[in-house]
Amino acid sequence: TVDALIVGHLDNANIMASVGIGSSIYIFIVAILNFLRMGTTGFTAQALGEKNGDRIRQILLQGIILALILSLFLGILASPIAQVAFAIMNPSPELYAGASSFFSWRLLGVPATLINFALIGWFLGMQTSRIPLYMLLTTNIVNIILSLLFILQFDMGIIGIAKAAVIAEWLGLLIG
């Protein structure tokens, strides 16, 4: 990911390892819910083919509501899941502290990430691929710029990387 690329250029291997561990847990939790994108795409395309405007709007609303419900659910289960993952990985206390801080901050972006899944799926189902492109480009470019700024200029370390990603995810949602 962008996070690992940027921290890989720092002189501190613990920061890179902490970001890697925290990112792995975050990606595991969020990637499982990628069905929001694929399911929304299929249902929206069907409704578009039927020229059913009410159904199209209903699918979008259902996707967003489901994303919010799943975000709440993840908020409740994230800590126990992370504890199990940390127990399996068994990082040193220093890595654990960094990875858990990174992971905790990244959780603030879960609602934006999941709603983005639903929006991207909906736009693709509507055969409007430019908006998802703009969303993803914005998210990635802002993440890179803020990560560089927070790490190199403000020396925010692990928390800066996490904050950059969260801000980028929410900005991507605003574009959508």
Q: What's the arrangement of secondary structure elements?
A:
Blueprint lengths: L1 H6 L5 H19 L3 H15 L3 H37 L3 H14 L3 H16 L4 H24 L3 H19 L1
Helix pairs in contact: 2-5, 3-4, 3-6, 4-6, 5-8, 6-8, 7-8
Walk me through the structure.
- This protein has 176 residues and is an all-alpha fold.
- It contains 8 helices and no strands.
- Helix 4 crosses helix 6 (110-125), helix 5 packs parallel to helix 8 (157-175) and helix 7 packs antiparallel against helix 8 (157-175).
- The relative contact order is 0.17.
- The mean pLDDT is 93.
Quick summary:
The protein has helices spanning 2-7, 13-31, 35-49, 53-89, 93-106, 110-125, 130-153, 157-175. The protein has 176 residues and is mostly helical.
Helicity level, as a percent range?
over 70%
Distance between the termini: 22 Å
What fraction strand?
A: under 5%
H and E order: HHHHHHHH
| Helix/strand/pairing category | mainly alpha
Radius of gyration: 18 Å
User: Which residues form runs of ≥5 with pLDDT under 50?
Assistant: none
Instruction: Summarize model confidence as the mean pLDDT.
Output: 93
Largest sheet: none
Count of strand segments: 0
Shape: globular
Number of helices: 8
